[in-house]
Write the structure tokens for this entry.
Amino acid sequence: MGDLVLRNGHVIDPANGINEVSDVRISEGKIDAVARNLPEQPGDRSIDVSGLYVTPGIIDMHAHVAHTHSRSTLSLHPLVNTLESGVTTTVDAGTCGWRDFDQFRVDVIDASTKIRVLSYVNIVGSGMGGAWEHEAPEMNPQLCADTALMHSDVVVGIKTAHYWAKQRFDANHLPWTAIDRALEAGIRADMPMMVDFCPELPNRPYPTLLEKMRPGDIHTHVFAQQFPIIDDNGKVFEYMYQAREKGIIFDLGHGAGSFWFRNAVPAIQEGFVPDSISTDLHTGNVAGVVIDMLGCMNKVLNIGVSLEEVILRSTVTPAKEINRPELGTLSVGASADVAVFNLEKGDYTFIDCEKTTMQGDKKLVCDMTIFGGDIVYNANWRGHKSWEQDLIDNPTPFHVRTQTQF
Ligand SMILES: [Zn+2]
């Protein structure tokens, strides 16, 4: 097979400051060249993508894809609603913990061939999905760190979530147990912590969480209703900017209940754009308010963020947050993970987790997804010849072929 060349697309590659019409040459699974009018080479398979945007493969840094037997009530198969969004890397946000991570790795991570799967390890041994998530003895920083380090080629951090959000604190359920132990695991493994959190006054205020977090730690679900993001005057609280200044990362993490326009729109329009855009896709929201990565990106785009920024926050910044800077870029030598989008104009309605709507006038639609140089999604079958042409090229009917031709 010769090289695959995407011709005349509008390339947006924020890592390299490219935002212009260009060609992209893919050779042996890697990006070989990005430049205008690349010369034809023998054996080239050129695909014309005029009028379309060409970007690095999208990274969804918060999803739930631990589709093993024990986790199937929560998690989706990694190929559900990903390739159709240009996603080439999906990151499981701690569905499994230090007890069941080995099985997840065998069943899902190592078995995935059309998409890259990376993961956080939950501080809770048996991961998400039951009453055990609230029990301190399940949260073992050393075993969690050991698991993360044993699988450091695919693990990107430590996750804490769901801890004691709806009951009164007691001697066995202190306010900060899950955060403190996840932090300790993160320190021992030298990896970031991703936090899903529920503040409570006066015992567990949100600003205290931001003080506890280290630079590089990630607060996901930033626009959920339970977070005091916007003050009475409709402005973003100063401590949000101070936390960002310190290096705390804010991830969108849409989820079934964590993206509210009443928080997102004023914050984003003031300039507080989430560092990364992610879905928190799982069985409970795939057919609801999230659907896919493009759904989340299109909401941010229609709130008023530029297309280049939306791509940046779906490629470069998540790659940095998961400490995989070689991803999310079309740099020469990088894995040829590429997305091709059409930007449609029209009247569109978007929905949040309160089921309130927002109107918009543009929508990215995925045309093609390429993973490691292989076309894994091709909505309009670009690069294929017509059946009429095939009849001209191969006129002999199949049924008259002789054995010698097989
Ligand atoms: Zn999640």
